[in-house]
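Hey team,

Sharing the Polysaccharide biosynthesis protein run so nobody has to redo it. Sequence (320 residues) first:
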Amino acid sequence: MRILITASGGGHTGYAVSLAQRLYGKAELLFIVPEGDVWSKAKVKRYGEVIEIPKPRGPFDSIAKLLSRLPKAFIKSLRNISREFNVFISSGSNHSIPPALTAWLKDIPIYNIESCVRFTKPSLTVSILKPFSYKIVLQWNEQKKIHSNGVVYGPLYELPEYEIINKGYILVTGGTYGHKLMYNIISQLELSNIVLQSGNVDPEPYKEKHPNWTVFKFDPDFGKWIAGASVVVSHFGKTVIDAALTYRKPVVIVPNPELKLTVGWEDAKILASKVNAVIVEEITPRAILQAIEEAKHKNPPIYPDGAKILADEILLHSPY
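Structure output:
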């Protein structure tokens, strides 16, 4: 069996990895990553071949950029996707749309994954691809409210690749695009045991102000930092799932108000309740410090392995 999977950056790449871990050695995998996304490429290349296709629009990009990149994305999709593939898995993001529609044109069934952070309204990508999809993949029962015809598999979390221990540091992560407001607030706190993943935010000011912190932009082996943390302080994204369900870590969620194209506070509150995390509603030094202390006394719940359930279905019950 040959399977195409979009690894569209950030948490979308995380879904691709979670499935690749269960499919590796049982099917031939080809990953589609955004052009220039070194982090996503590094994450998936161990499981199969990788091709790059332009991502039409990032969270801070204009409509003009979307219109200029979209034709290029379709052209590269048409060149790289053949009828030889049995299944196409869309991990989400507008990056998945051109290759998914190309797959549909070539009669390849599409598994369309809804984000783990969507509860009150569907993601635009999933909605656009819905008429062309073989199945809508849901991660929570609550998502049936926004996709009545979707199938609930359970959360798609990565398998642990590192020993789960407590090295005493607090891991602060803002995902691919970073969370400058959160970083600046935490920088005001007198905390010495911080590991900070800055994403696209310049890490140098934090390195200079806190020479005893560990600060970096990206690490393809990011799991090792989650595995050793005492608490994970994260933006509202898939890192929350991997910290809580893969590595059984207490989690603090600090939503990023700058990401206007993503979901809102109500969704963040629901996700926090699902993984027993503490959510920070007022981004202040005191609120974050209190949330960290509160999180230390919380234990994550246990859920079915949604990635394994989905991978097994694809291998056994694919329509082709």
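The chain has twelve helices and 13 strands.

Ping me if you want the raw files.
A.
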